[in-house]
Structures
1.
Amino acid sequence: MAGAQQIAVVTGAGGALGSAISRRLAYDGFDIVLWDLSKESCQASLEQVHTAGRRGLIVAADITDEDAVREGFEEALAQLGAPLVLVNNAGLMRSRRAHNMTSGDWNQVLAVNLSGAFLMCRSAIPFMEEAGWGRIVNISSIGAKGLAGSANYAAAKAGIEGLSASLAKELGPFNVTVNAVAPGFISTNMTAEIAHARGVDIAELEREMIEHVPLRRAGTPTDVASAVAFFTSDQSAYISGEVLKVAGGS
């Protein structure tokens, strides 16, 4: 959106992926609303945004809480302006085989990964429709096609792709694009959680996972951030409702 104030909301901004996405968008000219559960987790990301010469605002709010989401957007509007870019990156895994999965495991993962993304979209859309321009990028996963031991996560990410496709059809007439980025094996803190759940060493897990990646390496948060940046740029202005895998050929 040439010449206009550019403000992007990035959820899960305190984690490795969120930090990389926030940093890349800041260098691309966006002011960043760093959204996570705690302000402390976003301090390093905020410093990177400032280093890029952009404004940053930390919003500590639970994306699964409707009131907190509404209040968070009100704060963002008051402090920075109308956010016209939304990156739904916040995610959670609670992995175990289906017959051992508790209702709590199922509900929490669906709430954070899918319902939270919906609530964020619902609050952001009016700003985009009013402006006649917007970008929504939802972080999915190649696990959306099925992930043994993480049926809750796979179901949530499949839902994210359905949500993205539906919103792309709804919002296209307002010049708002909605796309998803589906990472494969990315080395982050979530990798450590998977290793712990499987009872294996993280280095062992990484070696095992890389064997199934044609490029023979783990992806990095920067790889994912580059894909997100593409969908927020004018280069992707005629692309909507798509899922871009960032998975090394997997």
Note: Helices lie at 16-27, 43-51, 66-79, 103-131, 151-171, 189-198, 202-210, 221-232.
2.
Amino acid sequence: ERKLDLIGTAPQIVNPSQDATAISGSPAHAFYGALKQNDTQTAVKALKRFMQISSDLNLQLDMASMLVEAYEPAGVPIVRNILEKDFENLDPSKLAIASHGLYTYSVGALTIDSEYTYLRDKAKKALEKQNLTENQQAALYNVLASLEYSMKNYLQALKYQEKTIDLAVTEPAYYYNIAKINQLL
């Protein structure tokens, strides 16, 4: 489904001000159009341009997370940079999406062992934010459960996944995840 041929390439450090002049018109429109065409190189350029002209950090993170979820290595340092610089100003739901995107990318790129601590710490820090909704908490606990599952810490994964069900009783994916963990115990 997704572009997997770039997984083997190491993510490069991305400076949003570099190589962003090739996009004309609306960078957001160019970004979404490029993703629709599976043209991640143009999407990266459009995102860099968008970041120059927009102060909407949550939208920047959302767009960068889409690149990561498309397995575009250039998206990883962009997401990480936004998380590092603006964590306190980001919407918790965007943090959950970004964390899950980085998790999924790391699993696919076979780098989860080296990314585990970073991702776990970011998800736990996001859970400390004030005024989280139950769905936002559940999404973050689901990231933690996924991380523990990937590290074969099945009992800890089960504990986190049980919290997701307590917080979001109508989300079928969480029940599926808990069933998969229970199969391994």
Note: Residues 1-21 have pLDDT under 50 and may be disordered.
